């Protein structure tokens, strides 16, 4: 009995102090990590970053610090570091394989947020879908189509796809194709088209509007009309050009003025 109590006292002294020290270090470390990450999130160092990027960066730093704290606590308890490293490496490989798709989306989200190939409110087309970008998270990008459908696209897919950003530039060009009878004079038709485009307030004069013969068949001629506008005015100009040119050609007695839809994107 005396030997048992002696051994119990030894174990309590030997491991009780280690356990107490480990607990103290854990709670002190947790307190310091919370203070540090809070100060980092509110500090000037990360203020220039996008909100999602800032949150992700702080969360990543927080996770790393907690991993280091746990490793420190475990080492104080006397568990061999080689065993800890082996367990962490094994867990890392297992988690990585299980979350391969999620990690691909995460990497894609980080790259999108840092390199900004597009931003919220841009109208983009990628991977067979198109819409207005409403939200960019670390894993998914959400779009809203023109007929009000929500599309959620994995960021890993977006980073491996060709992305067309229709909102990236300040101005865009509206391209329309019209068909007339073969008997019409090309120069007359071109002049009417240019006058019709000049009458539209939102069509820019620089770059200048364009109207030329671009093809035809045995029975008809094909004319291409192009007008530049501000990106936000694209659809107004698209429909104004279509209507004004058709009306002007009809008023001038041009035979069989027909518009051929060659582009229908935001």
Describe the protein's architecture and organization.
The protein has three domains: 2-98, Helix Hairpins (Orthogonal Bundle), CATH 1.10.287.1260; 117-165, SH3 type barrels (Roll); 171-260, Alpha-Beta Plaits, CATH 3.30.70. It contains seven helices and nine strands; from the N terminus they run ααααββββαββαββαβ. It has helices at residues 2-42, 51-76, 81-98, 100-115, 155-159, 186-198, 234-251, and strands spanning 123-126, 129-136, 140-144, 150-154, 163-165, 171-181, 210-216, 220-230, 258-260. With 266 residues, it is an alpha+beta fold. The chain is rod-shaped, with a radius of gyration of 33 Å. It starts with a helix and ends in a 6-residue tail after the last strand. 52% of the residues lie in helices and 21% in strands. The strands form two sheets. Strands 4-3-2-1-5 form a five-stranded antiparallel β-sheet.
Briefly characterize the structure:
The protein is α+β, with helices and mostly antiparallel strands and 266 residues long. It has helices at 2-42, 51-76, 81-98, 100-115, 155-159, 186-198, 234-251; strands at 123-126, 129-136, 140-144, 150-154, 163-165, 171-181, 210-216, 220-230, 258-260.
